[in-house]
Amino acid sequence: MFIKLNKISILAICLILFSSIILGCIEEDIEESVVTPTSSETAPVEKQTLIVGEMWDIRTVDPVKSGEMVKEKAMIVDTLVEADPDFTLRPGLSELWEQVSDLQWKFYLKKDVKFHDGTEFTADVVKWSIERAMEMNPSVKTLTQIKSIEIVDNHTLLFITEEPYAAFPASLEYPSLGIISPTSKTDDKGIVTKPIGTGPFKFERFDVASGTLYLLRNDDYWGIKPGLEKVVIKGIPDPTSRAMSVEKGEVGFTCDVPYGDIERLRATSGLKVEAYPTARVYQMQFGNLTGTPYSDVRVRKAISYAIDREVISDRTLHGCAAPAIGPVMPTITWSNQKLEGYPYNLENAKQLLAEAGWEDTDGNGIVDKNGEEFGFTLYTYPQRPGLQPMAEAIQSMLKDVGIKVEVRVMDWSAIGEHMTDRDLKLSGTAVAMVPDPDYYLRKTYHSNSDSNIWGYSNPEMDSLLEEGLSTFHAGKRQETYDRVQEIALDEVPIIHVAYYKVAVVMHDNVKGFVFNPIAHDYMLNPEMYIAS
Amino acid sequence: MAHRFKQSNLSEKLPLHLLKYKSTAIGLMLIVVLAFLAIFAPYLTPYDPIEVDLYNNIQSPSWEHPFGTDNLGRDVLTRVIYATRIDILASIFIVGISMIIGISIGILAGYYGGVIDKVLVGMMDTFLALPEIILALVLVGALGPGLFNVTLALSMLGWVKYARVSRGLALSIKEKEFIEAIKAVGVSDFYLVTHHIMPNTIAPISTLAVLSLGHAILSLAALGFLGLGAQPPMPEWGAMLNEGRIFLRVGWWISIFPGLMIMITVLAFNFIGDGLRDVLDPRLKLRERQ
In B, residues 16-35, which contact A (CB 8 Å cutoff)? Predict the structure, then answer.
């Protein structure tokens, strides 16, 4: 009997422990909201040192393999062309460029630039570096269309493209094309282990075991003098851990914290929180546009009208998204400002469905046509935490117009095997790998594109997209892409739900940060410094 | 009809015996409450477990929503109650199927012996060498995520322990004198196994089964937490835990309550299992009398 009594007391202890844990959590929450994070708690940190909580594990420091890391975050390398936050191009390592013919581009390099180790920055180094990137990464070749590179003189290069390619200067902004010196240390497989670039920060060391990258200020930087002395970039892949380390003061800057935590972090004194729209869009693609209910454009429009993008962005994703109009967010210079999109309108949605023949004839709340009910499975994947709640919100919104949706969450690679022509997929897709409209628009809307698995085909669209490739006059090119976006919105071959926002959290004393949405996640800038 | 040795009068007194143990009584009470929740779910709460209310998300517990609401504004209490239905039914299904497979294989091996036994025991050992949850992950990966697939995968993997126990029992029972007697009468093997060996394995197997129910719920919740089990918006404890994970600091109620339910249910099954073992194990009873 003694043993039995003991079990009951164990149960009691368990319950007491559990409730105290819960109470402890609540109390902790209240306490923590008044605690000011200090940057000196864990390690003695020197002035002008910024520790960054990075969202991916850092595995390599070769710019070709992880250009976003080495160029955008670590600022070790520069590219020939850079871009402003509105995606207009500006000179990077090249002072100016000119188009010689349809296929030829001349780039004049900056003359007062030196690599971190003092190596001269010359045309043959640039040629070597770009050719190395093309050799190592086949996507660089498709993105740039480079056929060959010729050296004109010590600081002038001539690029010859395979085809007329108006996006060429923009493609040189691609972070994998960050210029490194041939003196960079490599391992026996030719992967760079100590990159030597021209950027505002020098590589100090990379601790492979902890995935931490240490950087030092480059006092001879050709641009403005960097404000920070040291930057330490630590990979913290779990969003919750990132939020905690910026609160505790272990890191001074981090991004993409759980969207549920944003409001709480914003209320924490000593922290600055801002969610910035990036060039990534949450989009819903149809399984197939032929032989399904979606071959009728009215059905596609009805689905688009039935989605309340405002509430998804503000409530479901807690401000970590912005309602989408078309594929290109309005702050990007090449977006068509006249478009209005599909503001939430249940009546329009129902009417369009009725016009397409989808009506609820048996009164069960689901629309049907010829005895067949309208339903589909919405597939999405777990890697981006905003997708599942968004899919569930869409599910409930489409229920209001009588469409029965099932949500299935599975690994990105497995979706293709399960998805049928009738199903839809919700994903977060990069809109600008390089700062040019051609990349995403041709990929999504051209009938020959590999990504266009839903089979959208419109001859006018195809010819406009091809025209955009060989139109070099900026104004005329803009007209072409304005028309592309207009047709895209009018025919809705793909539904844009929201623009992705990345939440940046930093300590109050970190100043000078300018968010640039051309970054693939976020990018740091040399103007940053720590105020005392 | 069926001849059961040693425990002929036990089955009638079983409930009374069980209630003598306080922890078992508590376990039974908890299970009765959980069963009540599962059966009468629609009458217990005014909300729909999948009805989304996007404007009232992450509301802390109140009179209107005693367990608060989740990120999509669904009532957590309602979801927890409906999840009871899904989790308990699925775990019973898992244990039931693995029991049927396990007993059949175990008795087959134990009763016939020889090559059949060697092959089947080898199979059991192989299965035992592999961690169950990893195998389940592989199976679900192949079948695709979903509650049905997870239930199926776990049913296919849980049979080994039943097979081992019933093989052992069959080995000892087949040597008994009454079996010799029945054989002498000339009944078929099938009749002998189903009418005389199987009934005698029920007591130990049922203890094991009740204890495994808790284990099944944990595995189900673990796979649900990984996003492989119930697909949204179906309420399932493990999946609810996962959904609330990123809101732990702002909305602890979203994952604490499903977590508590998992704990209580597993505890209840374990209490009953312990009690059953104490009552049904003759050696323990003997010790108690002394």
Answer: 21-23, 26
